[in-house]
Design goal:
444 residues; Zincin-like; 2 domains; four-stranded mixed β-sheet; 70% helix
Amino acid sequence: MTGLARGLAGLALALIVLLAPMAVQAQSLIRDAEIEYALKRLTQPLAVAAGLSPQRVRVMVLQDSSLNAFVLDGQTIMVHSGLLLRLESAAELQAVIAHELAHIANGHITRRLANIRGAGSAAGMGLLMSLAVAATGNADAAAGLAMGSSSTAQRLLFAHTRAEESSADQAGARYMARAGISPQAMVDVLEMFRGQEALSETRQDPYVRTHPLHADRLRSVRGYASAYKGTAQPDAEADYWFARARGKLGAFLQSPRYTLRRAEKDKTAIGMMRRAVAWHRTPDAKRAMAELARLEAAQGGDPFVQELKGQILLESRQFGPAAQAYARAVRMAPNEPLILAGYGRALLALDRPGENRQALDALEKARARDPFDPRMLRDLAVAYARTGNNGMASVATAERYAIMGRMDTAGVHARRAEGLLPRGSPGWLRADDILAAAERSARK
């Protein structure tokens, strides 16, 4: 580990300590490989139009039934699940993304960083933590660690001025036109919030509080849409990936009965996926497996179909078939950390020496791509312990508790790891960083 990397890790752990008091208010970051892939496909043409790297920009989903979206840092856009489920088309979601990309491209993040420096709160430090972790190349993890922000802090740190909103609208409409997407979708999104300015603050959607909406702004957006009229091209692929992301999110978050009613006559693969999830959540394993069989017959070569099959089988305690499904998914998408983590989890469920070693390999690969996933770290600790490496098991456990903000417990496991690992080894250095952060926390 280089000096810079150790410094970033130390900063990250120090900021976790400051973030810990907010843990009880934390919102949940939804991690799903299929949804994240779909959002990436929808974002790519807009990022190119904005002059940003499509490989670096990420759109993540925050489990929150309210309607909002905001820029977390210079490469991460957060969208509330409530907003994603409310939007009706790929173009509407792309309008939201284009607007947030404009905040990044126009440098509005610079003012926000100044706000963070003056925030002096755990929530502010949590956002700064996200930037520190993002510097290591893991924006997904950064987003998860910053979710301790309270609604008040979110308003302070994520709110934009009217001038910034107008600038982002104009630039976002331009990005949409360059990507062949109708800016009229931006008008449609803003129309959803029309009239909320007159409501009391407690009744407003968070989007209105962080993105000031006024008559002049709506009039200007209509003008942009009119100016770019005729530039849009039909995009069946965008509509397809939007339907997959929205359909899967709704299947897991909304009532199974509601999903089954809405998807009853949907003969597409997306309909099959939604019914499989709904029957699994009912629970009705027989019907869930029947839908999965139909889905696999239609799209068996899709890694996300195999991942879903693995997840449902694993949660139904069919560990062998689950591991087989995940193995197929890994062969199709070998660099996807969430699929690798699921494969490791399924192998651990079998609890046999050979499978435990395979699980360790999969989970180490997952950690290399996403080192701040608490669930993966828990499984990694089990894999290390089962393969006789108690020192690294303690390191993984210490990291998991540190991410959760439980620095006292993290320190106990870090100290144990230092006693079991060779001094100066990579694992020992990781434990030493955690122990130093835990000791600073104890002194406060």
